[in-house]
Amino acid sequence: MNKLVSAPILILLLSLSSTNCKKNAGDQSSAPDPSTRLQIFQATKQENLKPTIWDTGDTTITNEDRLDLFQSHVADLGGGYIGVGSTQNFSLAAWAKTEYMWLMDFTRVVVWANRVNIAFLKNAKTPAEFRELWDKKSEQKVYTILDKEYSNDPELNDYKKAWKISNPFQRQRFRIDDKIHAKRNTQLWLYSQPTYDHIRELAVQGKMIAVKGDLRGPTTVLSIAETARKMQIPIRVIYYSNAEEYFDLADDFRRNWLAVPVDEKSKIVRTISVHRNKFPWAEDSDFSTDRGFHYAIQPALNFQAWLKKAKPGLRTFKILQRGETSPEGFTMMNSLPLPEDIQETVSAEANSSQK
What's the rounded Cα separation, in Å, for the pair 289 and 137? Predict the structure, then answer.
């Protein structure tokens, strides 16, 4: 059901759109040349990560089995891409025809595994060759590739360790994806040579990097935001997976994601596994585990309007409950905050504007 939105909130959304479009577009005559743009991209700053209980092989794969629900919503968006997690990002970025890709995670082993995947992409011309590199029989070949790609990297041994502890789980993920593909004909990134080629080209051209960072951290997200502005590239896909369900969207999170340059095409891509009574799991979303997911899309400008004005204690489910939720396990979120969602100062402004 559509609900009226207060004038200040509508003005806010229009303002965010105008501001971000100006930031993204800039003076096209002064846009950096491709070589300079690549240098800017590769100089993205990142945080130092501490060991966590999630530095385990199973965290290097996804358990979201219905990413195909996102395909039509991200198709051909282009621009920049920010995503947490591992290879599930490759399907989303391939569908979006992403131009520059930041893979980030707060777990060291996931970052290391992503860097292993980037090395594999550079050295594997087909999906079959890529999959073969995750076979335990390929150990010596893998180490040769990693030695070549990361010869001067102080974390080289960590990449080898990540490959060793991750490869049983990667092979398991391949088998699961094979079953889902057979059942639903999903067009994930490893099931089409053109789709694979797009992701491989990003790696070969240096347009994909794996960085260490927390969604609420002090450095990585803000550096990505600054870098994207310098490159004059709007971020078109932001993939959170279900990370947001673990915390309030507090000041540190808001500071980071309000800084990211987005435009009217940009999308927030997320899943949620909690509050199943309100957000039902999509069919077969629990194919690989006993935990399914609800899938959701939100325009990034709309999300920034929520971050800008929503009162403290904001959680993802509070945003999504304003969206259009289907029993098939999908929410399309387009609604702006209602008066009861926003801070008192904004409510006071609304009252003042009506006098």
Answer: 27
